[in-house]
Automatic annotation (TrEMBL):
InterPro entries xref list: F-box-like_dom_sf, F-box_dom, LRR_dom_sf
PANTHER family: F-BOX DOMAIN CONTAINING PROTEIN, EXPRESSED (PTHR38926), IM:7136021-RELATED (PTHR38926:SF72)
Highest classification ranks of the organism: Eukaryota, Metazoa, Chordata, Craniata, Vertebrata
Domain F-box as annotated: residue spans: 4-50
Range of residues in the leader sequence: none
Top-level taxonomic group: Eukaryota
UniProt protein name: F-box domain-containing protein
The organism of origin for this protein: Pyxicephalus adspersus (African bullfrog)
Length: 428
């Protein structure tokens, strides 16, 4: 082991590279050893991808804020905060570019965002106590925003929502309605006036096929007025997420406008086999490489012949049969990522056939599913596999896991522990 004095003689860039592999708790231990290492651990390069979670802001002193400022913290998540506390945070962390408010937002708190002139990402997870007029009047001030998420928001009409067109740099937009409806004309208006928009998430439980399809059709008044934002002729979305939807499908014109999609997520979706919806997605969206079906109705497509470029498939908390998995292997022969966490409906013999059905798999997620020791051994034959999630599996013994590591020479990263809870979503 290298003596302490030799550690301190290493170049700073070498120490920073080593510290980059440490967890926050490990960094805190190193930081407590001496003034020199404390200064190094506070270097901004070690914290540039970190999000600080504040559950209570009032308990922190000036030294704490000075430490965060020296680290140039740019991302925070805040819960239970007063306007005075929020102003303290924004004045102490002028470099903030991303703010998530995981609490019930009020209009006065939104006003506290104004000093954040560099804000690029804003996520409000509970807008039930603030009107849409207040929300959009404040958000319109941040024309540099690239990511905007609004959950549990109530729409009073068309006009407030249309002010989003002022955010011409918007790349990602999430609108999760409190009542399950979004004004379709307003949504259509903004989608065709945000030329940089690539990601869209909608929670729209009460919108039928035709209302939702209208959002993805070129507005009738295509020629815009001089003072209006110009209207684009085609959408360029790469990612679409539909939550709590009862919409069975989309119109042909809508699919045409969505032909650039690379990723589709259907969460809490009620219809997966109506009108051959899954097959239609794979046929009408030629660029699709990722399909996510999470906590939805049973995934039972009609299983007709389909040529697909699908590389990632996630079927979480949903019933999926042996026959469907076999159909997927024929339709998506180049599948690299398969997530079956919390899913059911297939048996262990199907799992044992994965090396033949999905020979190109690099990531396989089987968290909270039944996996036998025999099936685990067979999965060692997935020679491209690099990550295997077998967390929360009560049927695997430590001896079986150790044997698997020996068989694979530790080339596969095993995920053995994960909180027994679903992924955190801002809307259900």
């Amino acid at each position: 082991m290298m003596p302490e004095i030799q550690w301190l003689q290493l170049p700073q860039e070498v120490l920073l590279h080593i510290f980059a592999y440490l967890s926050p708790a490990e960094k805190a231990n190193v930081r407590a050893t001496c003034t020199y290492l404390r200064t190094l651990v506070d270097h901004p390069s070690l914290w540039k991808n970190s999000t600080i979670v504040f559950k209570s802001i009032g308990i922190f002193n000036a030294r704490f804020w000075d430490t965060l400022q020296s680290r140039k913290i740019s991302s925070v998540e805040v819960t239970r905060v007063t306007l005075k506390q929020f102003k303290k945070m924004t004045s102490s962390l002028p470099d903030l570019t991303s703010v998530t408010m995981d609490s019930c937002v009020k209009g006065e708190i939104l006003q506290g965002l104004r000093p954040l002139v560099n804000l690029q990402q804003l996520h409000l997870t509970d807008c039930t106590n603030v009107t849409d007029q207040d929300i959009f009047s404040e958000i319109a001030l941040f024309q540099q925003l690239t990511h905007l998420s609004l959950c549990r928001v109530s729409f009073s009409g068309v006009l407030p929502l249309t002010s989003i067109v002022l955010l011409q740099n918007l790349y990602s937009l999430s609108l999760h309605s409190n009542e399950g409806t979004v004004p379709e004309r307003a949504l259509q208006y903004i989608l065709f006036r945000l030329p940089k928009l690539r990601e869209l998430s909608l929670a729209i439980g009460n919108m039928n096929k035709w209302k939702l399809s209208l959002c993805f059709n070129v507005p009738d008044n295509f020629v815009s007025t001089a003072e209006d934002q110009p209207c684009i002729s085609r959408l360029q979305l790469h990612k679409l997420e539909l939550i709590n939807s009862s919409c069975a499908s989309l119109s042909t014109n809508a699919f045409d406008q969505l032909s650039t999609l690379r990723s589709v997520c259907l969460r809490h979706y009620k219809y997966l086999q109506h009108e051959e919806f899954i097959e239609t997605l794979l046929l009408k969206l030629p660029q699709l490489t990722e399909l996510r079906i999470e906590w939805a109705a049973p995934f039972v497509p009609l299983m007709g012949p389909i040529s697909s470029k699908l590389e990632k498939l996630s079927v979480v908390g949903t019933k999926i049969s042996n026959a469907t998995l076999s159909w997927i292997s024929r339709s998506a022969s180049q599948l690299k990522c398969l997530n079956l966490s919390f899913s059911h409906g297939y048996d262990q013999e199907m799992v044992k056939s994965f090396p033949q059905l999905f020979p190109h798999l690099q990531n396989l997620y089987l968290s909270n599913t039944w996996l036998t020791e025999d099936a685990l051994v067979v999965l060692a034959n997935l020679y491209s596999l690099r990550v295997l999630d077998i967390s929360n599996n009560l049927h695997l013994t430590p001896e079986a896991i150790l044997a698997f590591r020996k068989i694979t020479s530790n080339r596969i990263g095993l995920i053995l522990e994960r909180p027994i809870e679903s992924v955190k979503y801002c809307c259900w």
